[in-house]
Design brief:
The chain is of the alpha/beta class and 409 residues long. The chain is 35% helix and 13% strand. The protein is built from twelve helices and twelve strands. Strands 1, 5, 6, 7, 8, 9, 10, 11 and 12 form a nine-stranded mixed sheet that branches. A three-stranded antiparallel sheet has the order 2-4-3. Strand 3 and strand 4 form a beta hairpin. It is globular. InterPro entries: DUF1501, TAT_signal. Keywords: Signal.
Length: 409
């Protein structure tokens, strides 16, 4: 792995090796049958009561104001005369706030007491850049850039089992990359890599006596990905919107398909504790209302269907889902019937273990920070609760000490 032509950024290599292993085409990868996987889960299943956290990333900056809608606030209607929803259109949560009309499934979960809405979530000194803000959310480091993610640091602190965290998708998000460990990446599209790419990545993953500590970690991660691929690949076939999940398809990559894979793994008894899935398209600078409502409908159908499926299986009762976006949007609509990059937004947490209701203060629409909502809840407090109460681990290595409990678990 030495020499100028073999020098690669470690994170880029980890992502690349995950692509190969996720597709099951790396040399030595083992494809397990469903029966073999089930037998393994019987011998070493996820223990009863061991929680599972599913992280849903909404890429693009979802407009939280038209998601959890302050329909009774005149300032809302004044700032968005064309984008605002009328009181009769929203799905009422209380006398002031309601859900977007596309979110009927989550509204039902609210009524059942298993949906928490954390309001005004963000971080100090917000950044309006998609890249930087998402990096902050995924690394849980608002003050300075770091090269490890919050789930990656949890992996570093808790052992070397390659099945502890899984990203459904071939490219690992930065939240999943640690200093010594990385989550597994699973590709649901079935698109194979070129043979030359497979050979190159296999060569980069070969161990050498001269490897540095970082290079040894890369090789170990590469080997772990192959183990994970052999475990999960039998579950990837035919994952399109079965097991109760809904939502429109994007080939094999719809949110419903991703959650179908998660559901099948949970019900099989696989010991994974954290899954990551994603949905994009929320950068609504123009013609927002129709675009966002369609995306929120996809989110709603996929999440509510997945959670309904989890309620039918004993192993699904410990599953908690969190959905977040890198920032919200500005209060005032722009001239293109859209909204521009903002700051704080709502985070949804749902599942049987969740104490439903509102958490965090609702940001004011008139007391603004140069047109932006003021953050009322630090996102690291949400993460800390998911780690401490969702999967029963010390959150300090991942998000630092001194976080405040939110109370939704």
């Amino acid at each position: 792995m030495k020499g100028p032509r073999m020098q690669v950024d470690r994170r880029r290599f980890l992502i690349g090796s995950s692509v190969v292993a996720a597709l099951g085409v790396a040399g030595g990868a083992t494809a397990w049958s469903v029966e073999e996987l089930t037998a393994t889960a019987v011998e070493h299943p996820r223990a009863d009561g061991d929680g599972v956290v599913v992280i849903v990333t909404l890429y693009g900056g979802n407009d939280g104001i038209n998601t959890v809608i302050p329909y009774s606030d005149n300032a809302y209607h004044d700032a968005r005369p064309e984008l605002a929803y009328a009181e009769d259109d929203v799905l009422h949560l209380d006398g002031q706030l309601g859900l977007n009309p596309a979110m009927t499934g989550l509204h039902d979960l609210w009524g059942a007491g298993s949906l928490a809405i954390v309001r005004g979530v963000g971080y100090p000194k917000p950044d309006h850049s998609h890249f930087r803000s998402m990096d902050i959310w995924q690394t849980a480091s608002p003050s300075e850039p770091v090269h490890t993610g919050w789930i990656g640091r949890w992996l570093d602190a808790t052992g070397d089992d390659p099945l502890r965290a899984v990203n459904v998708g071939s490219v690992l998000p930065s939240l999943a990359v640690g200093e010594r460990a990385t989550a597994a990446a699973l590709n649901t599209s079935g698109t194979p890599l070129a043979a030359a790419s497979v050979a190159t990545l296999a060569a980069l993953g070969a161990r050498s006596a001269s490897d540095s500590a970082a290079e040894s970690m890369v090789c170990a991660s590469y080997a772990a990905e192959k183990v994970a691929s052999g475990t999960f690949s039998p579950l990837l076939g035919g994952s399109s919107s079965r097991g109760g999940t809904g939502g429109r398809g994007h080939g094999g990559q719809s949110l419903a398909d991703q959650l179908a894979v998660v559901g099948r793994c949970v019900k099989a008894g696989v010991a994974t504790r954290v899954y990551s899935v994603q949905l994009g398209g929320f950068d609504t600078h123009a013609d927002e209302r129709g675009t966002q409502q369609k995306l929120l409908g996809e989110l709603d159908a996929a999440l509510s269907g997945f959670l309904a499926d989890m309620r039918t299986d004993p192993r699904g009762r410990d599953v908690v889902v969190m959905a977040y976006s890198e920032f919200g949007r500005r209060v005032r609509a722009n001239a293109s019937e859209g909204t521009d990059h903002g700051t704080a937004g709502p985070v949804f947490v749902a599942g049987a273990p969740v104490r439903g209701g509102f958490y965090g203060d609702e940001p004011s629409l008139t007391d603004l920070d140069v047109g932006d909502l003021k953050v009322t809840t630090d996102f690291r407090d949400v993460y800390a609760e998911l780690l401490a109460r969702g999967i029963g681990t010390d959150p300090t290595p991942a998000v630092g000490a001194g976080r405040k409990p939110v109370g939704f678990l």
